[in-house]
Amino acid sequence: MQQSRGKGVWLHNMGVVYHYRIMFWTDWGSNPKIERANLDGSDRVAIVTAHLDRPHGLALDFELERVYWCDANRDVIEYVDINGR
Questions:
Q1: DSSP readout, 25-62?
Q2: Domain 13-81, CATH 2.60.40 — does that match?
């Protein structure tokens, strides 16, 4: 199996991973969540919906395929894999 590093760009609380052609973003609305979708907007899914208050500061680990974030109101740094597990 070949491994390759993806490249990304960050716009405030949104991340785009060109290698996988997916994007991630946070929603601070009445039901805070972290979502993922393909670059064309298809296959939108909330990958984190619990234990969130004000998620932001998304960061991706390309090697381990993890999404990290901090929560400003909970004072924590957490992560899930890119599929929300």
A1: EEE-SSS-EEEEEETTS-S-EEEE-SS-SSEEEEEEET
A2: no
